[in-house]
Every structure is written in C-alpha cells, then in structure tokens.
Design goal:
Layout lengths: L1 E3 L10 H7 L6 E3 L14 H14 L5 E7 L1 H12 L4 E7 L9 H20 L1 H7 L2 H4 L6 H15 L2 H13 L12 E7 L7 H10 L4 E5 L6 H5 L1 H13 L2
Helix pairs in contact: 1-11, 2-3, 4-5, 4-8
C-alpha cells in the first residue's frame, strides 16, 4: 500500500493510520518534501508523485495493490495514475485536489488567499485552536495541549512562507498529460459530508478523467478527518474496498 500525505501536515500525523494498515499491508508512507524534519524544501506535486514512483522502482515493486492519498496526496494519486508506468490495482482519492481550470491571474489570487490563511493558522497558536477545536482534532489517547504545541512547533520550524506558497500553488495547479491514458484501476473518491460543496469540482474532474471512479461520502466528517483522527475506521474502510470485487 502506498500512502500520500496531505498539505501542511507533518508526516507523523499519518503514522497511526499507516500503522493500522501495516497490520495487513506492506505500507510505504511517502513523505512529501518539506514535510519532514531534515530541512528539505517543497518543489512540486509532480516531483512528489515522480519521486514516489522512482522509489518504488528501486524497491522492485512491480505493481501497487492499494494507493491512497488525501487532499494534495489525492492529487498525487490523480497524477500518478496518469503519468507513471507502475500499475495500481485499487486507488482511493480522499478529497483529492485537482488542477484549477481558471486563468493564471485568478489562480494566483487564490494561491495568495490560501497562503495568507495558512500562514496565520500555522504562526498563531490561538488561531490554530480556534479553527481546529482541540476536542475534535486531538488524536485519541494524546494530550490536547501537548499535541497542539508539537504541531505549532513543527509549523514554525519547518514551514517557511515560501514553502507554504509553493505547496498551495502546486497542489492546485499541477500539470496533467494532454491525453490521460485509460487505466484499469478501481477507484473511489472519498470526501467528508462537511466538505461536500468544496469537493464538487474536484469530484467532477476525477470522474471525467477516470470514469470508473465511485464517490463515497462520510457523514459528519470534515476534510482529512478520517485518516487523521480515526485510524481504526480508516483501516476498516480501506479493507472494505480491498475486499470488494
């Protein structure tokens, strides 16, 4: 199983769900550049997907049984299926971001808005707790204050303004082949009920690009909440998909 992480979260935010899946799969959790602790910088979503494919080839992985990506990571799945030559049996695009269809200047305005929003959220401890209430966004078994201070420290130490802008620009404006090849991959597009409206265009893009994609809505959940907060349920949902036809 190959897992791609989302934008602006440290790699260890996905550790619990990756470990849950490791009970069944050999899991490759692909850490995006700039989302680690070793000082790398984020270049592009295209590089994230390409680096993952190169790594799998070096590990002599001839095919992938299950691929999962959330948000930016979902975009990586979209790009991987279209641009890489490693077959994927089943893929989950969880609230996956797809390229904007707008003109360049509109895309720049959106990127700047996202940049300001995330910059404030990652620099202000109070704003972070206001936008993401601790009683909802603290993983089970962790102390809320310790968890949020660890996140805040990571953001301040490793997410420079330039990196934040690069991430959001690339996640929303990555390139796709002029002619997307047909793939036999079974695909589900997941999204939380609370983000349904925001994912409308993304879902339309995915189902147009991959007509076999099936949508699946999760009641009462927000963006990336399933994989970040509910590793046991995440395991169950992936296993359900894996066992289906």
């Amino acid at each position: 199983m190959v897992m791609f992480q989302c934008t602006a979260e440290p790699w260890w935010a996905f550790k619990d769900s990756a470990e849950a899946m490791a009970m069944t799969y050999h899991v490759f959790l692909m850490i995006a550049d700039g989302h680690d602790e070793i000082g790398t910088d984020f270049i592009s979503l295209e590089k994230y997907a390409s680096d993952a494919a190169s790594y799998l080839r070096k590990k002599n992985v001839p095919c992938v049984d299950m691929m999962y990506g959330v948000s930016m990571g979902g975009g990586c799945v979209v790009r991987f299926l279209a641009a890489e030559d490693i077959p994927v049996d089943k893929a989950i695009i969880d609230a996956g971001i797809t390229p904007y269809p707008y003109s360049g200047w509109i895309c720049r305005l959106i990127a700047f808005k996202d940049f300001i929003t995330v910059l404030i959220g990652t620099r202000s401890y109070r704003a972070m707790k206001l936008v993401y209430p601790q009683d909802r966004w603290t993983p089970k078994g962790e102390d809320p204050e310790e968890h949020y201070r660890k996140l805040h420290h990571f953001y301040k130490q490793h997410f420079s303004p330039r990196k934040i802008y690069n991430v959001f620009w690339s996640a929303n404006n990555y390139s796709m082949p002029d002619h997307t090849p047909a793939v036999d991959t079974k695909i589900e597009y997941w999204y939380g009920e609370e983000e349904k409206k925001a994912r409308k265009n993304n879902l339309a893009y995915v189902t147009k690009t991959y007509p076999q994609a099936v949508q699946r809505e999760f009641k009462g959940l927000a963006h990336a909440e399933l994989v970040l907060m509910f590793p046991e349920r995440f395991f169950q949902e992936v296993t359900r998909f894996q066992k289906e036809g």
